[in-house]
Amino acid sequence: MSLTIRLNIEDMEEKTEQPANETNSKQKNQLKETLLTSPEGRILLIGVALAFIYTLWLGIKLIYSPEESQILFGMTATDILFGRAAAMAFGYSLLLGHAMVITVCIIIETILVLIFYPLFVFSWRHLLVIKWLKNTFERLHRAAENHKDKVQKYGVIGLFVFVWLPFWMTGPVVGCIIGFLLGIKAWLNIPVVLAGTYVAIFGWAFFLRRLHGRVASYSSYAPMVIFALLIVIIVIGNLLHRTLQENKNKT
User: Phi first, then psi: what are they for 162, rounded to 5°?
Assistant: First the structure.
């Protein structure tokens, strides 16, 4: 009798394991097909390839120009954490050239868009859910929803202006998510967002370079003070933005 019960339990376990395994294998196959055939999949592959090339270039810089590579690593981390303005201010404060600051910022922002956009879309469609990015995507989604109606009035031009203007939470990642929520196709969404981003970068370069030239005449430490002030403003702004959002959600 006990043997029969044990056999029945084992059969039930096998039956429950088989559907789960079949579901996982189907999801993996679907994800592979999506990576190769969908626009988002190809965008992600391009983004990963560009990130690899950029990382390889930083590694080569580390060997042949250690001091400059440290500045570039710092600029990359600053851009990811605090945005393009802070990253460019960091580069200028450590005397990087105009061409280097602009080029590096363009590459970093492009990589962020090409990787985060498809990952958000896959997460939205439940094809690929990355647990440690879940909170980030939820925050980006809320920000996109808050600005979606403003952009929708003017369509593609509104999306370009949204990414270009230096307002709070108007970066390229939020911009491309808004484009997705508005139903703009990836082949149009990504170029418009990147175009707005590049125009914004050149605008910041012109402004920060002139500001750097003026304040440097007063003190050699003045550019670094400007960079520190930007970081403080961004951090305080983020805290205020989160507090306001939490209060809205409570009400």
Answer: -60, -45
pLDDT tens-digit profile of 173-194? 999 999 999 999 999 999 999 9
Q: Where are the domains of the chain?
A: 29-250
Question: Residues 45, 119: contact at Cβ < 8 Å?
Answer: no
Q: How far is CA 69 from the centre of its chain?
A: 22
* Interval 165-178: pLDDT, tens: 876 566 899 999 99
Q: At what angle do helices 172-181 and 98-124 cross, to 10 degrees?
A: 30
Neighbours of 78 (CB within 10 A): 23
For 12, the token pair is: 């039930």
What's the alpha-carbon Rg for the chain, to the nearest Å? Answer: 23
Q: How many other CB atoms sit within 10 Å of the CB of residue 36?
A: 10
Residue among 199, 208, 215, 218 nearest 86 (CA): 208
Q: In whole angstroms, how far apart are CA 146 and each of 108, 124, 157, 215?
A: 25, 17, 18, 37
